[in-house]
Design a protein that fits this description.
- 32% of the residues lie in helices and 20% in strands.
- β14 and β15 form a beta hairpin.
- The termini are far apart.
Length: 189
């Protein structure tokens, strides 16, 4: 996929996930979550080529400009969107599937100091509410919804809703919309 096609896909994903988005120009110029993802792609390419220090240096500049920290070693799928974004942290060994939505204040962090896989893996279509913390080398299944301020430290099967501290997974009902679930009062703690 070419760079221009990827940019168009990112803009369309932002417009789909943010009801306040008015048009492609506004999204391209004013959405720090999108800027952070675009910069991450450059950092990640540098990281994979062994340019570790320059990749980290430029990623820290992006963090300063956007308030979003994405480690260049993280692996991120297509159509990833960070809404608002301030305070988002994505660790080095995090893996994020396609069509994932994160709100501000989300942490994909580690719980251990040993090397290897230390950060979570999010499946395709996962939506994570504001302030949620997903910690450790856990796997969150496809199409899960994580409520605002939840603290997730255990694996979750696909199509689950996770709420609470510590978060507990429960099956989602058929037809539940991720955006509507994230705004529902019973999913906020």
């Amino acid at each position: 996929m070419g760079a221009l096609q990827r940019v168009r896909e990112d803009l369309a994903a932002a417009k789909l996930r943010d009801p306040a988005a008015r048009g492609a120009l506004e999204i391209a110029l004013l959405y720090p979550g999108l800027h952070a993802v675009w910069a991450y792609r450059l950092h990640h390419r540098m990281w994979r080529r062994g340019l570790r220090f320059p990749a980290r240096l430029v990623s820290q500049l992006t963090r300063f400009l956007t308030g979003i920290e994405i480690h260049p070693g993280a692996v991120i799928g297509r159509r990833f969107f960070i809404d608002h974004g301030m305070g988002v942290v994505i660790g080095e060994t995090a893996e994020i599937g396609d069509d994932v939505l994160l709100y501000h204040g989300v942490t994909l962090g580690g719980r251990q100091r040993e090397g290897g896989k230390r950060h979570p893996t999010l499946g395709d279509g996962v939506a994570v509410g504001a302030g949620a913390k997903i910690l450790g080398p856990i796997v969150i299944g496809d199409r899960c919804v994580i409520g605002a301020n939840a603290v997730v430290t255990k694996d979750a099967p696909a199509d689950s809703t996770l709420v609470g501290v510590p978060a507990k997974a429960r099956p989602r009902r058929d037809g539940d919309d991720s955006r509507a679930l994230l705004a529902a009062p019973e999913y906020v703690i």
